[in-house]
Design goal:
Subunit structure: Homotetramer.
Enzyme class: lyase
Strand content: 15-25%
CATH superfamily of the largest domain: Ribokinase
Protein name: ADP-dependent (S)-NAD(P)H-hydrate dehydratase
GO biological process, one term: nicotinamide nucleotide metabolic process
Shape: elongated
Catalytic activity: (6R)-NADPHX = (6S)-NADPHX; (6S)-NADPHX + ADP = AMP + phosphate + NADPH + H(+); (6S)-NADHX + ADP = AMP + phosphate + NADH + H(+); (6R)-NADHX = (6S)-NADHX
Mean pLDDT: 95
Length: 504
């Protein structure tokens, strides 16, 4: 799919190794100090675009080239007559461009103090209309942070809490540039100016939160890009057009059939929400196989969904149709009833070559199955805990490298994997990786995954590629969740409410 997915443009993401390659190519054309100066000018431009009235600045710098960017930025401010002070956190002598930037800043009259000496001058009430710049570590950071760096991060966040605007250069200190992983201490920026190209850590995990507003300054690197590590679909791309578009001469047969399997005692709502989501996301026809006790609730809420009780005569023939997609797992439960349905309907899907979405307890039963072959085009939708069960590892291991975790699952089961998290990773067995969605607290509620599985079923019935279907379903679900949260409030809005916003 490359630079677009389903007709939506995507942005390239890179790991640190590839960023270093881009740097070396760029330095073969431009002097490296000239590129550092360009970065400082870009930072200057972006900050004043965001806060044109600001007059005072504190720049927290480390000893590397990220700190060099900050020092040259401070020099620009000094020349322009702004109040600027540098708090220096370098732990060893600077070298190369970083030392040259330090000497140039001093020559321009920039006040540079050791961090420990400088911070004592600021009281909590002195941070109104001031910008604090995090130019501490950049992509060279390694976790865990040292005690000295932790103190600097805490001070910057405290200044932010007291009213300062907080800007990160390249990536917020405390975030792993390749994974987005962060421990307790991480700079929580209002604005991140990412230099050269976007990093995985700018959008993944805690990094996607710590970045704040994320902007890119390519510094002339766009013409020399290697293959990206991943691609990012920003949900704002869906502001003007929803996935699964319909033509004026459409008929229901064009949009496939989705059957949801689940809803044991006490969990009927999960299967009902999933089937409703499939219908509202545009599936041509939708079926539901559940406990008989849940039929009346389904029919009263969604009379368009063909709801059948498990054990109904010839239910397989009635719920398996041409171009069928199965969603197995919402409310399926971990008792014998759910196990029997999982085994029976997965076997039917293989026989009939129907792609399957496995969610929730469908993933639980998958983890209990030693040898399994999924139909072509199938999708797994684990959250971090479910992924840990499938991989046999702690959740923290997955947080520390979610891309590798998603690719490992995709290759193990020869399918597409939707690894749900603060931002969601979609990967396939061929090594493609996409990031979709943004941090959306409204989705931290039971039922969000059930709604996503139904929407994914509808997208899988529409698109020929399971990767395309998965990326778009995740972005669509996230986009609608944001709209519903802004309309109803993060606390009040419920997962099923977002279905009323998927066409807005």
């Amino acid at each position: 799919m490359g630079e677009s997915v389903g007709g939506y443009p995507v942005r390239a993401l890179f790991d640190v190794k590839t960023i270093r390659t881009i740097e070396q190519q760029l330095f073969g054309i431009f002097d490296s100090f000239e590129v550092m100066a360009q970065a400082a000018n870009a930072l200057y431009k972006r900050i004043f675009q965001r806060w044109p009235q600001v007059q005072r600045f504190i720049v927290v710098v480390g000893g590397g080239n990220n700190g060099g960017d900050g020092l040259l930025f401070a020099g620009l401010l000094q020349e322009a007559g702004y109040s600027v002070r540098v708090l220096d956190c370098a732990l060893k002598a600077r070298q190369g461009d970083a030392q040259k930037a330090y000497e140039l800043a001093l020559s321009k009259g920039v006040v540079c103090q050791r961090f420990a000496d400088g911070v004592v001058q600021y009281a909590d009430n002195e941070f109104d209309n001031i910008v604090v710049v995090d130019a501490l570590l950049g992509i060279g950071a390694r976790l865990p942070l040292s005690e000295e760096v932790v103190k600097s991060v805490q001070w910057m966040n405290d200044a932010h809490a007291c009213g300062a605007h907080l800007v990160a250069v390249d990536i917020a200190t405390g975030v792993d540039s390749d994974t987005g992983y962060a421990e307790q201490n991480v700079v929580m920026a209002d604005l991140t100016v990412s230099m050269l190209q976007l990093k995985l850590g700018n959008v993944l995990g805690k990094g996607g939160i710590a970045s704040g507003e994320l902007v890119l300054e390519s510094l002339g690197s766009s013409s020399m890009l290697p293959e990206p590590t991943a691609y990012w679909l920003e949900v704002e791309r869906l502001d003007y057009r929803s996935p699964c578009p319909r033509q004026k001469d459409s008929h229901k047969g064009m949009f496939g059939h989705v059957t949801v399997i689940g809803g044991d005692y006490g969990f009927g709502g999960a299967a009902i929400m999933a089937s409703e989501a499939a219908a509202k996301a545009g599936a041509g026809t939708v079926g539901l196989l559940t406990r008989g006790e849940h039929l009346s609730a389904s029919l009263s809420r969604n009379p368009n969904v063909m709801a059948l009780a498990s054990g109904t005569e010839s239910c397989e023939q009635r719920l398996l149709r041409n171009h069928s997609t199965l969603v197995i797992g919402p409310g399926l439960g971990r008792a014998s009833w759910g196990k029997a349905l999982f085994e029976n309907w997965l076997a039917l899907a293989v026989t009939n070559e129907c792609p399957v979405v496995l969610d929730a307890d469908g993933l639980f039963w998958l983890a209990q199955t030693e040898e399994v072959v999924l139909p072509s085009g199938s999708v797994l939708t684990p959250h971090l805990g479910e992924a840990g069960r499938l991989l046999g590892c702690p959740v923290d291991d997955i947080l520390k490298d979610p891309v590798v975790a998603s690719l490992t699952l995709a290759k193990r089961y020869s399918c597409t994997v939707v690894l749900k998290g603060t931002t969601t990773i979609v990967s396939d067995e061929f090594g493609s990786v996409y990031v979709a969605g943004r941090p959306e607290p409204m989705l931290a509620k039971g039922g969000s995954g059930d709604v996503l599985s139904g929407m994914l079923g509808a997208c899988l019935a529409y698109y020929s590629s399971s990767l395309t279907a998965s990326v778009l379903a995740v972005a669509w679900h996230n986009h609608a969740a944001g709209l519903s949260a802004r309309a109803l409030g993060e606390h009040r809005a419920q997962p099923c409410d977002l279905l009323d916003y998927i066409d807005r």
